[in-house]
Design a protein that fits this description.
Radius of gyration: 17 Å
Strand content: 35-45%
CATH class of the largest domain: Alpha Beta
Distance between the termini: 10 Å
Structural class: alpha+beta
Order of helices and strands: EEEHEEHEEEHEEH
Length: 173
Amino acid sequence: MSHYLNHPSGAKAQGSKYYYTDKLFGQHFSFTLKTDEVMVKFAPKPKGLQKATAQAVVEQTSLETIHDVVEAHRFCISSIPAGSAIETVISKLETNASVQAAFPARVDQAGNTRYFILDEFTVPFKENMSIRKRCSQIVKSHNCEVVKDHLTPGYYTLSVPSCNGMFEMVVFS
């Protein structure tokens, strides 16, 4: 898929460390696990996400909301209580039918907290790949699905196949 994508970066995962190099500017970014914050991605609902539903999920897992629910994007950022294991909190969240997935926050090399939705990624196809059917064939050949077709021509948000991680999927050399 790499020769069809106009993707400026590649990324690799090693254990609990994640990194990528921006091929356009040559800058290296590395991320480590932040064990006291979690990003909760809520399941799609026919009538949309209700703030009360999201707040109830957060309270049931003894979390505190850091950044309010973004209803249009179906996620919120919450802090994990001291002494709680992030893996346990994520497992508990993911048993709730209102939660699609939960992801730990990451910290970059400058100490900034970063949030990644690890079950999807956005790619821009090269301009000569504007034929939607061919783009769709390429996406399917990598076991991905189009989650969102962006307003910007050629940009798609894709699902990450269960056999890969998000950082592995963006390694296109």
